[in-house]
Design goal:
The complex is a heterodimer of chains A (158) and B (261). By secondary structure, chain A is mainly α. Chain A is built from six helices and no strands. The chains are: A mainly alpha (158), B alpha+beta (261).
């Protein structure tokens, strides 16, 4: 799978801005499975993942009329919304001393995607940073440096 | 003030797009972008697109069965944010601005005429443009407060729904998707439903043996068009209890069990 067609997504968002429920349904069908998978990898509790998915689409629906005010492609915006929601959940859980596990072990990128062209270590660090944020402290310095290089390589291939 | 150069900031762009890294550096990058550096904005856009393309390269996970319909029903009722009015961000065309000012003055005059004697002194003491500005500010502040209120309410509910201590009770008995989210610590029960048949009245009750505790009514419009309602739970509630949704004539239409923690 690649990023969903931007013009198609933009059309759906334009229709949602006019309150079109069918467009919302079409958008959920188009990107819902990918946003759900993103959240589920970060939030291992299915109920919480389902609620966060709905909250993500709630934010997308609410902000559809002002979407043009945001920079970035539609997919980038929607993935940012879902990741931010799930990341907030993880941070809140960590603050309560309950670090949730990540579901990214052994994840294989879709063949033909830019990610699949990178080596295993690059893929690993990109996925960990995407789903769990940048590692902090001195112990994370090596991973942060590796991430910087991996992201540049990914951007070159995208 | 010292101005950052592109080459000083560029090494920090990968961390910037993850919304992580040093907060001071992030602020410096935002400041740099706000000065209109197109080259850095383009570079960040490129990295941002690459970073957020990651989930699209991984296997998808279907939305829960029936989840799309329920989501559309629930979300389409939510208010949508509207673009700012052209009064706050005029487009600069003199003729249009003149017409806007004339319209606002006419509006202020009409408002002054309608508001009655009690308001007249106050209206007279303000200039017409001042009054229009004040109304604009009041309106924006009011909208801001409403957004804040809705946001805080949603956050509180989200916290409760996603708390591992919250017990999820699925209710069965009718062709509907109904759940109760029981947060004993917070002393609340959130009941959500979609697709219940039309009935003039509904009541949610907890039953333990012969004891029936009425939690409260469920509005027919929520039952029919989908939605949820929160009920307070008494302190020291003995569990398990059977949660029942009863129709107006006392029939039990849905039931589920609230287990002991």
């Amino acid at each position: 799978m690649t990023v969903p067609d931007p013009s198609e997504l933009r059309t759906l968002i334009d229709r949602m801005a006019d309150g079109d429920r069918d467009a919302l349904r079409a958008l959920i069908e188009a990107v819902g499975p990918h946003l759900h998978a993103t959240i589920a990898r970060m939030v291992p509790e299915p109920v919480a993942a389902a609620v966060l998915l709905e909250e993500s689409f709630g934010e997308i629906w609410s902000h559809a009329p002002v979407y043009d005010a945001y920079a970035g492609e539609p997919w980038t915006w929607m993935a940012t919304v879902a990741r931010s929601r799930a990341m907030e959940w993880r941070v809140a859980r960590r603050a309560k001393g309950k670090a949730p596990p990540l579901q990214v072990e052994g994840m294989v990128p879709s063949p033909g995607s830019a990610l699949s062209a990178l080596d295993e270590a690059d893929v690993d660090v990109l996925l960990r940073v995407f789903h769990d944020g940048l590692p902090g402290g001195d112990s994370g310095a090596e991973d942060r440096a590796r991430f910087d290089q991996a992201l540049l390589r990914l951007a070159e291939g995208t | 003030m010292e101005v950052d150069r592109c080459r000083d900031l560029r090494p920090h762009f990968p961390a910037f797009v993850t919304d992580g890294g040093d907060a001071t550096v992030q602020a410096r990058i935002r400041e740099h972008l706000s000065l209109g550096c197109a080259a850095c904005a383009a570079e960040i856009g490129r990295l941002d697109a690459a970073f957020y393309s990651l989930p699209a390269s991984l296997p998808p996970q279907p939305v829960l069965e029936g989840g799309t319909d329920a989501m559309v029903a629930a979300l389409a009722r939510r208010p949508q944010e509207q673009p700012e009015t052209p009064i706050l961000f005029p487009d600069g065309r003199p003729l249009r601005v003149a017409w806007t000012v004339a319209f606002l003055m006419a509006l202020a005059l009409a408002a002054a005429a309608v508001w009655g004697r009690g308001q007249q002194d106050a209206v007279r003491s303000a200039t017409l443009s001042g009054a229009a500005d004040a109304r604009q500010v009041r309106q924006v502040v009011q909208e801001y407060r409403q957004l804040q209120e809705a946001h805080d309410g949603a956050r509180a509910m989200l916290e409760q729904l996603t708390d591992p201590a919250t017990q999820v009770v699925s209710l069965t008995g009718a062709a509907s998707t109904s759940r109760a989210f029981v947060a004993l610590d917070a002393g609340t029960l959130l009941f959500t439903t979609t697709g219940l048949p039309a009935e003039p009245a509904w009541t949610l009750v907890l039953v333990a043996g012969d004891d029936v505790l009425e939690l409260g009514p469920l509005e027919p419009r929520i039952a029919e068009s989908g939605g949820g309602r929160q009920y307070p739970l008494p302190e020291g509630l003995a569990l398990p209890q059977e949660l029942q949704l009863r129709a107006g004539d006392g029939r039990v239409v849905l039931r589920g069990t609230v287990e002991a923690p």
